[in-house]
């Protein structure tokens, strides 16, 4: 009888100890497949003539410009929903630039209801991942499009509604 009670208490204690803490973290995801890594490395080392790769474009209310911050250059507060007239919005972009790549033909446009309101040059000359942003006060109600172009070709866009 003593052995049964002792065994039962061990089982209950072990189960209780497992439930006491936070849930176990999921195991880390495996690395990307080798062929995918090779393709990116080939572009990084030999792709300067191919141009920069736009990874992401976002409309942001706040970008971290603190040089000592672990989230430096990141979009901290993306636009979610509508914004008010006169809101300062950042057109935030993330790029991957190959070694030796220096590009001055990328632009960011702020467009209101189909009419270009401003065009701002983007200089991309830092290899690897780079982020850049420009801001504009969205001064009119309606649909604003923040568009990224390179050599006249549209690479990406995001839309903001102003009320």
Task: Describe it.
By secondary structure, the protein is an alpha+beta fold. Helix content is 20%, strand content 47%. The chain has helices at 2-20, 34-46, and strands at residues 53-63, 75-78, 87-97, 103-112, 115-124, 128-138, 142-150, 153-162. The radius of gyration is 25 Å and the shape is globular. The protein starts with a helix and ends with a strand.
Question: Which secondary structure elements does this structure contain, and how are they paired or packed?
Answer:
Blueprint: H1 2-20, H2 34-46, E1 53-63, E2 75-78, E3 87-97, E4 103-112, E5 115-124, E6 128-138, E7 142-150, E8 153-162
Antiparallel strand pairs: 1-2, 1-3, 3-6, 4-5, 4-7, 7-8
Entry summary:
The protein is 20% helix and 47% strand.
Keywords for this entry:
163 residues, alpha+beta, four-stranded antiparallel beta sheet, disordered N terminus
Strand content: over 45%
Helix content: 10-25%
Pick out the low-confidence regions.
1-17
The biggest beta sheet, please?
4 strands, antiparallel
**Basic shape:** globular
Report the order of strands and helices. HHEEEEEEEE
N/C terminus separation: 75 Å
- Report the count of strand segments: 8
Radius of gyration: 25 Å
